[in-house]
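Researcher: Go.
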Amino acid sequence: MGYQNSELKHSLQTRHVTMISIGGVIGAGLFVGSGSMIVSSGPGALISYIIAGLLIVLIMRMLGEMAAVNPDSGSFSTYAHQAIGPWAGFTIGWLYWFNWVIIITFETTLLGQMLHNWVPSIPVWVGSVVFPIIMTFTNSFSVKAYGEFEYWLAFIKVAAIIIFLGLGAAIMMGIVPGVKAQGLSELMAGANFFPHGFTPVLLGVIFITFSLSGSEVAAIAAGESTDPGKNIIRAINSVVWRLMLFFVGSVTVLVMVIPQGAKKLLETPFASVFDLAGLPAAGQVMNIIIFISLLSVLNFGLYTSSRMLYSLATKGDAPKILSKVTKRGIPVWALVAGVIFTYVFTLFKFISPNTLFLFLANSSGGVTIIMYVFIAISHIKLRRKTEKENLGTLKVKMWLFPYLTYATILAVTIIYAAQAFISDMQSQFYMTSILTAAIIGAYFVFYRRKERVSVNLAEVKLTEINPE
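Model: Structure:
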């Protein structure tokens, strides 16, 4: 296998970029987590999803504007480096990589558990070891092969949601016999829409915002597409409206079809709707869909983490060897590094799930919101710079700039700070904050010092050449 210090290949098509992004967001958080949101908030969970979805739309619009001007595999890490400073790109890049390795670890252990449930003779750890290897092969052949494989994994999830939405619409129109949807008047009557008050709805926005992480990869994947500038615009526009349709549409169906207070049905909400419609095999089918979703997120996570690590290495923020790519354009050492740390973290999950791994998971829990803050701040600075230097490159523009961008910064800052006052999220808030501070400190202690040494050496050489 030959290695080179060249750029990544540009072989992904718009459909690949779009599905990669959608596939990274749609997972167990929607298929199972939506039920938990409805249990805690009632039908008001729909408001939570709409607010969180709109927030993601604004973030994606900002990211799309920056990516259309400068498509880059480092995406928001590169933009933070350019707009705020090298320390910002270093910080968010490493935080994001760490966050995805933790997510990959969750996916591998869940896959191992599901395989064990189906075939009890296979231990959980076997699946946790085997599935990352399989997904590494799909990532290491070529980016086009990865894109095609991920496209079909994501397509299965999208097809399942479309079928679900179609069934839900049929139930609400009274076409499906034996099951009756709740009317809007029933949901809005008395305190039915907010059975536990409005506070759980606001708390739901916080939880949902964290679960929607992944849509930003449209900007990362576009850097390897055939026409980055054009594809990023198409992909981000497509991802935004599809995510809103899938998430808000799915929750609308759940709220309208599943009777209020039916906690047992909401444990597996999607399967419950199929069961209510008289499709008893749907429960097992949904388990297969969830299994495919986990595989997709694992595959997606290995791709995303490897590209971020590659980008860090090209900027000198990670070991140089991680910037080497194969002749097929794969940053194989960055990919291998992600797999190695996945195995290390998976081992921690098996030997110390409630101490060591819980510490790591809490440390990564708030990274998504920190990323959103960096994106918004970078957007303000780069937008103003672009307006001064080359206004013609602004093919995508953020709405109502700069007011909506400032409003977004305020909203995500409030969401991040709110963790400190929610008992279930306090550990996550403090550990993520400490980790962020530690990474910033590491940059100034080690990398900034290295930069100063390099500058001093360059000055010495220049003095030797021109002593006067």
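Model: Residues 426-465 form the longest helix (40 residues).
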